[in-house]
Amino acid sequence: SFGEYALCNGYPGVCTQSRDNFHVGREASYGGKDLRGQCSDNSQDIGTWFSLPAASRCKSRADLDEGRCTWFIEERVKTINLTCPFQTHDMIGACNDGMAHPGPPNTFSRARAIYAAAFASVDPAEGGCPDVGGPTHLPF
């Protein structure tokens, strides 16, 4: 089960505006659905945000399996600088389009495509963004 979504800053972040520091928080992007989309399938329209409280980060897969914590970093696949999708691939324009034309089937479809392409390639001509690096497994 999920907890209340909280604003988090950093990686992994310090979460604020939540009384639950154990459960992974979940809501529709911008809280844009009934009950903030906590229990909705948001995959076909506006997407889902998750908050990961540092206090409930698992040290191992076994801790997660035993329920002593709620999330675990399996592997860092790619990290991008947000200036790439926003400045190189017009993410802000795509987000503005999504806000101006709410509702399925096109809600944020261009923004989703930009975001997916940013991680799928490093070639800017294909919409890709370079991997800025970082550890594959984050220490505690």
What can you tell me about this protein's structure?
With 140 residues, the chain is an alpha+beta fold. Helix content is 24%, strand content 11%. It has four helices and four strands, in the order ββββαααα. It has helices at residues 61-65, 83-88, 91-100, 109-120; strands spanning 7-10, 13-16, 25-28, 48-51. It has a two-stranded antiparallel ribbon with strand order 1-2. The protein has a two-stranded antiparallel ribbon with strand order 3-4. Helix 3 (91-100) packs antiparallel against helix 4 (109-120). It is globular, with a radius of gyration of 17 Å.
Detail the topology: elements first, then pairings.
Blueprint: E1 7-10, E2 13-16, E3 25-28, E4 48-51, H1 61-65, H2 83-88, H3 91-100, H4 109-120
Antiparallel strand pairs: 1-2, 3-4
Q: How much of the residues is beta strand, in percent?
A: 5-15%
| Helix-residue proportion | 10-25%
Question: What is the SS-derived class?
Answer: alpha+beta
Number of discrete helical segments: 4
Report the span from N to C terminus.
Answer: 25 Å
pLDDT averaged over residues: 83
Q: Strands of the biggest beta sheet: in what spatial order? A: 1-2
Give a count of the beta strands, DSSP E runs of length 2 or more: 4
How does the overall form come out from the CA principal axes?
Answer: globular
Secondary-structure element sequence?
Answer: EEEEHHHH
Radius of gyration: 17 Å
**Biggest beta-sheet profile:** 2 strands, antiparallel
- Low-confidence spans: pLDDT under 50, at least 5 residues? none
